[in-house]
Design goal:
Radius of gyration: 22 Å
Structural class: mainly alpha
Strand content: under 5%
Order of helices and strands: HHHEEHH
Helix content: over 70%
């Protein structure tokens, strides 16, 4: 098989797998019950996905691990976290995080 044929076969395979797994809940509806332990584990999926996306961005700079005070993204996240813990306000969390990040980028 040519390389183009393998590429199209891979695209069709991934597409069909995605379609089957996503549509199975719509087609099967209430007949498909997940075990309680799986339902409990799936509650953590959004937080885990968010951490997997945001974590590397906060902890690296230029492709290298940067945990020191010269990482404005990490210090902005710390400021946002502390603000959220103090106020429980999403608006103030965003304001504090962006203000700290911007100040550190401009004057840091």
């Amino acid at each position: 098989m040519t390389q183009d044929a393998w590429m199209w076969l891979a695209i069709l395979g991934v597409s069909s797998t995605t379609l089957i797994t996503r549509c199975s809940f719509l087609v099967l509806g209430e007949r498909a019950k997940l075990p309680p332990i799986v339902e409990h584990a799936l509650r953590y999926a959004p937080g885990a996905a968010l951490a997997a996306l945001v974590g590397p961005e906060l902890l690296t700079q230029g492709g290298h691990l940067q945990l020191g005070p010269d990482n404005p993204k990490l210090l902005g996240a710390v400021a946002a976290t502390l603000t959220f813990l103090a106020t429980r306000s999403m608006v103030w969390t965003i304001v504090a995080g962006m203000a700290a990040f911007s100040a550190l980028r401009i004057w840091g």
